[in-house]
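JOB MANIFEST
job_type = single_chain_structure
chain_count = 1
residues = 389
[input]
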Amino acid sequence: MPKPLLPWSEDLLEYNFGAGHPMAPLRLALTHRLLADLGLLDAFTVTDVAPAEDAALLRVHEEGYLAAVRAAGEGRSDPARGLGETDNPIFGQIHEAGARVAGSTLAAASAVWAGRTDRALSLAGGMHHAMPNRASGFCVYNDVAVAVAALLDAGAERVAYVDLDAHHGDGVERAFWDDDRVLTISVHQHPGTLFPGTGYAQDLGGPAARGSAVNVPLPPGTGDAGWLRVLDAVVAPLVAEFRPQLLVTQHGCDSHGLDPLAELVVSVDAQRRAALLMAELADAHAGGRWVATGGGGYEVVSVVPRVWAHLAAVVAGRPLDPSTAVPESWRADVTGLADVEPPERMTDDVDAAYRPWSAGYNPDDAVDRAVMATRGAVFPLHGLDPHLT
């Protein structure tokens, strides 16, 4: 089997909204260093990253928006298009930086679809909030939607997208709202409590694609047991029924309890288990074709590098034991960069256990009620009984 693909360039670190912004390029730099120090880069074919061309971006974004992003790179804010807002400050070369992120995920998806490899990882990708004519939630161009649109243009008839970010994957959902070739599943904190305020269980897709959009809004405080139970109860059966030709997954790790921007409590260990499940679903139902991306995640030392290193190891077919020691070389680098104590091991020292959905529904549990709301709304549209395991 060919090695999985990892598009990477130091130029990806130029996607930088400035000092103090949560989307710090340091999170990518530290992740890449951790992959190197763990010996994981050798498991990938690492390729350079070219910015996505306008033709690819225009499959998702409006021409006037691309012009506005280029103008933003010259210092012209456009708050009506989200450019220059607090979340999305403008900076020089913002178009080129955003297009390069899109190019990373586009290259990953294209390589898998063409059969050059079965798996690929776009660490810088997962910018799932960007809309056709507006930057949103730290996202300038929607690299995931651009890549999925390219897959459809190349002949794909069924693509499944699973979004594990704490925030609703609204931009990707919106791009394919009325396209039954794309199944979007988002597991996120309840929109009544977190940006972007969308993603309710009854949001099901457009009239030509009812059931193609799936949302599981979770109460703040949801931890490992509930979060993993959702993947078992909703994600796994729907992907199995849809039988995608390629699985795309977004692994924003802002669901961790240390993340400053969300209120879920999902450990590094549970997110490792989620990556393993995505690999299993791709192998069982998508012919092994899997493209994984990064996404949100704003605890840049203890959380993001470890979660994405576990993800990379799973993509590479070399899962790390959670008890693996964090390399001393990496810890020394971190100590030199930030006044924080780096983690010693690749685990949060939890079991990340959960009760499978087949064990029964508990109506007194808030997460189970959220699961049943989604299953009740969506499963009949896929010919599935929401009450059966």
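[summary]
The mean pLDDT is 97.
Residues 94-113 form the longest helix (20 residues).
exit_status = 0
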